[in-house]
Backbone:
């Protein structure tokens, strides 16, 4: 996280905004994962007026680093003070569609995190599930445990 040198005004305004902000209901469906999620427009509609009421605005800019893409979310106060944080992900596809999807995804999660808002989804749950192909690969490359005899204790074993 990055901040301006002083943050007392942006912190006070954000505390006031938090009292007025509410979690946002899922309004969209991801047919690929068959899950519901909160769209970026719904999240912006729920947060912008509340932030503005408290002298706050959000700016999100695309960023990339080491093969990852995402956004830097900056919460600006009318005083010039700010809080900023970046969310980066590895796109599923390395083409304009993949970049756009990654940026939109990061905008949603960056904005929600910055505003302390919980999105009623979670297509993020799908992303946190282990990949069954990776689990299978891990089993295939894992060393086999040594075989143990099944005949019982030997004469010199301590029981």
Residues:
């Amino acid at each position: 996280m990055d901040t301006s040198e002083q943050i007392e005004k942006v912190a006070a305004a954000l505390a006031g905004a938090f009292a007025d902000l509410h979690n946002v209901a899922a309004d969209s469906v991801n047919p690929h994962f068959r899950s519901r999620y909160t769209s970026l427009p719904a999240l912006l509609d729920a947060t912008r007026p509340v932030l503005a009421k408290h002298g706050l605005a959000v700016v999100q800019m695309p960023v990339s680093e080491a093969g990852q893409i995402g956004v830097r979310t900056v919460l600006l106060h009318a005083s010039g003070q700010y809080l900023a944080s970046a969310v980066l992900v590895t796109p599923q596809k390395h083409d304009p569609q993949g970049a756009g999807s990654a940026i939109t995804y990061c905008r949603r999660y960056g904005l929600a995190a910055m505003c302390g808002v919980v999105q009623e989804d979670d297509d993020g749950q799908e992303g946190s599930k282990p990949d069954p192909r990776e689990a299978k690969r891990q089993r295939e490359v894992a060393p086999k445990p040594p075989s143990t005899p099944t005949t019982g204790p030997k004469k010199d074993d301590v029981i």
